[in-house]
Design goal:
Chain lengths: ~200, ~625
């Protein structure tokens, strides 16, 4: 077919920022489908809970401290996370490097406490359905923690190489920060499920 | 990497050089590793389509085996255990390895072309998706060959599929096959959403998006909201079986119906995941055969969106016989019936399109007509089983088997076959045979109705589904024989279709760019399209671009030739925002899929496979995402 050139796109940037970046949308869409996974798992929890004569059943309630500590750590990490996102927006390489190091530490710390949190549930996954579903909720969230911490570590290493100073990388850092917010926020309803008072 | 000068633009050289340079930048390397590494959506889409049709063939053979066994009372072709495996394999294979993947496969090939871009979004994810899909299919069929095929029905109800009643690994194979296919489907859904949101040709505003693309967009959202349910379900099932959790064990506070809720929360939308793309195909093919744009574009889009939303209100209707609260039942009956409204709107739009058009009776159009007829019938039996008293009566009989084959074959496979006849010339560059095509359409349409209509009657006569045989004193013998003979006719139609498809690839008449004189963008490029799809990105000025610009296509220039470059546009108005790069070929998606498969299959046998298996997966993912310093990495 014959063509008639009617637009010149040579002035466009080589990589779009924010909503002009496909990876931004990809992250968003991933959050949607994983969010529906979380929602379904919580629905399973509520369903089993509605059938149970008592809740928690067949086990003492979980110890609270590890869960509280994880929550505090995760919420606290939102502040440096926000800063890293802004610095990446300004393409400030030095600050982004520092910020990612901090975020790596702040990602690993709750993971360590998470180990103790499993023990503090006071029930095993194979004791009864209550044990199964709260282990599954915690494991599901932990998987997301691990993957995002892994992502943060790799990005952090990347920023110290020659590939670091690149607009594309800064975009990755911003998307990673957005995903971290998702990981923190999805924890809150799960926290309520695991530790919320029994009248909830 | 290539010898192309840095930042060379398509405005600086003549047209031939543009095409040569683009081909150099976008081509897939020759040889085995080149084929493994490719991220070209056309090559992957073609593979995906062919693989899905191979599974159709295999599943069809199983269907015929069942009909052979059931043709006479007390048949001896298949024993009870094998029959259980065969109907489970047939159902699971058809749903998870054929029907859903084939729709996504068509989209992988067509959506980027239809929206006027050069590759799908996240092309490496696309390659990964195909390998994972293939691994899931191999898992199921290899297990079947080893007499380890699942035997729990395609929806794997507990407690039958639980640790107590299903020892061995058969149920795990089924559950893990689901994980594979769902990962693959979710990946494609993500790609399609982002392709449609961000990679549409400049000027392709929301009201100019081809209807098949709309259908795939809605479908992708259904996939993303529904498929996690089955993944939650199948994972819990594997955990119950492997490490002793109690999700579905009533003795320890679990619940059997929980499985059914999870399954049908996915399973009902699943029907629309198969059906919506098919309606999109109809809407996109119709204009070429009635020589006018489709009637009621907006109504069609809205009814697809409505179907998408309502499809989630329907899951409980598969469970009417389980004894739910009364009000709940009425609500779900109402919403089951409500879906007939948007479906009806679609039918009326198509009828109005036909009414006003000048039909051209070519093969794809014959399949469209076959679809109309069958779909209306299937929809009517659907409204019947949506009512609680009737469902109670025919539940688990051949009435249901007839109903869902009407919906699946009539509602999805007919449009799909039409779509193959329609898009084959674009994909292969040659036409399929018109003469054989008429035979195919005729045999399949008549054979299908003769084979499946009598099953309604068998069902009303009380013949249960999933029985491996029946006694001679029951009145079902003659009809069963008739059904089995008719299914041979159906099979002959399919066989002819496969012959036609293989033969035409070598000797069909050359197609040219636009053999049907169709209005959408995929027909603006050559058949088959070059690796870069479009030498210059089209600029869209209306809903039927090739009809509105009969002699020249408006295009955009200014893109680079030394790197894979695509145009990113805004979500609503498709205003150009960036010249983004598209990744090069890579072996990493293949390694990632391989290591993931090892992990998933290993986890059927030991939970430690998840721990150790995740290390190679992580390595493959790092290799995948680590920048390689190519021009694509520039920003
Ligand atoms: C080639 C033509 C086909 C024939 C002859 C055929 C035959 C059959 C028969 C006889 C059954 C009932 C088994 C039983 O209840 O004992 C069955 C079940 C089923 N078929 Fe087909 N079928 C065909 C094509 C398809 C297609 C194209 C699909 C989907 C797209 C499909 C999906 C299913 C499903 C989901 C089941 C239920 C399996 C179960 O009960 O777990 N079939 N088929």
């Amino acid at each position: 077919m014959r063509e008639r050139v009617c637009a010149d796109l040579s002035g466009l940037p080589l990589h779009g920022k924010g909503t002009a970046s496909p990876t931004f949308w990809g992250t968003l869409v991933f959050m949607l489908l994983e969010g529906s996974g979380f929602a379904l798992m919580i629905a399973v929890y509520l369903y089993l809970r509605s059938l149970a004569p008592a809740w928690p059943f067949g086990a003492p309630p979980p110890d609270l401290w590890p869960g509280i500590l994880v929550t505090v750590l995760l919420l606290a990490s939102l502040v440096p996370n926000y800063c890293v996102k802004r610095w990446a927006g300004h393409e400030d390489l030095r600050k982004v490097r520092i910020g990612l190091v901090i975020m790596s530490v702040l990602g690993i710390a709750p993971l360590i406490v998470r180990g103790f949190e499993f023990a503090a549930l006071n029930v095993s996954w194979d004791s009864n359905a209550y044990g199964s579903v709260i282990w599954m909720l915690l494991a599901l969230h932990t998987t997301h923690l691990i993957t995002d911490v892994g992502d943060t570590l790799v990005l952090c290493a990347l920023m110290f190489t020659r590939h670091g100073p690149n607009r594309r990388r800064f975009g990755d850092v911003e998307d990673n920060a957005m995903y971290w917010v998702f990981v923190v926020l999805t924890w809150l309803p799960i926290y309520v499920c695991l530790y919320g008072p029994s009248w909830l | 990497m290539t010898g192309i000068p840095h930042d060379l633009r398509d405005t600086e050289v003549d047209r031939d050089t543009v095409e040569r340079r683009l081909a150099e930048t976008w081509r897939t390397r020759r040889g085995f590793w080149g084929a493994i590494a490719t991220v070209d959506h056309k090559i992957i889409g073609r593979r995906y389509i062919v693989t899905a049709f191979v599974f159709l063939l295999l599943g069809g053979v199983l269907g015929l085996l069942m009909r052979w066994q059931l043709a006479t009372p007390e048949g001896r072709a298949l024993g009870p255990d094998l029959y259980n495996q065969v109907f489970t394999m047939h159902g699971a294979n058809m749903m998870f390895l054929f029907a859903v993947p084939v729709m996504e496969a068509m989209a992988v090939y067509l959506v980027p072309l239809m929206v006027g871009t050069r590759n799908i979004a996240f092309p490496r994810l696309n390659a990964f998706s195909y390998w994972i899909y293939l691994a899931g299919g191999l898992l199921l069929w290899v297990a079947f060959a080893l007499d380890m095929g699942p035997d729990i029905g395609w929806f794997g109800y507990v407690p039958l599929s639980g640790p107590q009643y299903a020892p061995g690994k058969r149920a795990d194979i089924w559950a893990q096959m689901i994980t594979f296919t769902e990962i693959a489907a979710l990946a494609v859904a993500v790609e399609i959403v982002v392709t449609v949101f961000k990679q549409r040709a400049p000027g392709m505003t929301l009201d100019r998006i081809p209807l098949f693309v709309w259908a795939m967009l809605v479908t992708s959202f259904i996939v993303m909201l529904a498929m996690p349910a089955i993944m939650v379900g199948s994972t819990s099932l594997i955990l119950d079986r492997l490490v002793g959790t109690h999700f579905f064990n009533p003795a320890e506070g679990g619940d059997v119906l929980l499985w059914q809720h999870l399954f049908w929360f996915f399973g009902h939308p699943e029907v629309y995941i198969i059906f919506l793309p098919a309606t999109g195909m109809i809407s996109s093919m119709l204009p070429a055969f009635v020589r006018r744009p489709v009637f009621g574009y907006l109504a069609l889009v809205l009814s697809m969106v409505t179907i998408g939303i309502l499809s989630f209100g329907l899951w409980v209707h598969h469970m009417f016989t389980t004894g739910l609260p009364r009000l709940g039942e009425s609500f779900f009956t109402a919403s089951s019936m409500a879906i007939a409204v948007p479906a009806g709107v679609q039918i009326f739009c198509w009828i109005a399109t036909l009414w006003d058009g000048r039909p051209v009776f070519r093969t794809p159009f014959l399949f469209i007509l076959a679809f109309f007829f069958t779909f209306v019938l299937g929809g009517m039996t659907g409204v019947m089983v949506a009512s609680v008293p009737l469902d109670t009566q025919v539940h688990d009989t051949y009435f249901v088997v007839a109903h869902f084959h009407y919906v699946l074959i009539g509602g999805a496979v007919f449009p799909l076959l039409g779509a193959v006849y329609y898009w084959y010339p674009k994909i292969v560059g040659r036409m399929m045979s018109e003469r054989l095509g008429r035979w195919v359409a005729g045999l399949i349409f008549v054979g299908f109705n003769l084979a499946f209509f009598p099953m309604h009657i068998l069902g009303l006569q009380g013949m249960p589904r999933r029985v491996y045989t029946y006694q001679a004193d029951l009145p079902w013998g003659p009809l069963n024989m008739f059904v089995s003979l008719s299914s041979l006719m159906l099979a002959a139609g399919f066989l002819l279709f496969f012959i036609d498809a293989v033969r035409s690839a070598r000797s069909g008449p050359p197609a040219g760019d636009n053999p049907w004189d169709s209005p959408s963008l995929e027909w603006a490029t050559t058949s088959p399209p070059p690796p870069y799809n479009f030498a210059r990105i089209p600029v869209v000025t209306g809903p039927s671009p090739l009809w509105e610009n009969r002699d020249e296509l408006p295009v955009a220039s200014g893109l680079r030739l030394d790197r894979r470059e695509i145009v990113i546009t805004s979500v609503a108005d498709a205003v150009p925002e960036a010249r983004e790069s598209s990744p090069r070929d890579s072996l990493w998606p293949f390694w990632a899929a391989l290591t993931t498969s090892v992990l998933l299959i290993g986890s059927i046998f030991s939970p430690w496979a998840v721990v150790w298996g995740s290390i190679p997966v992580a390595i493959a993912l790092i290799g995948w995402f680590w920048p390689k310093g190519t021009p694509e990495d520039e920003a």
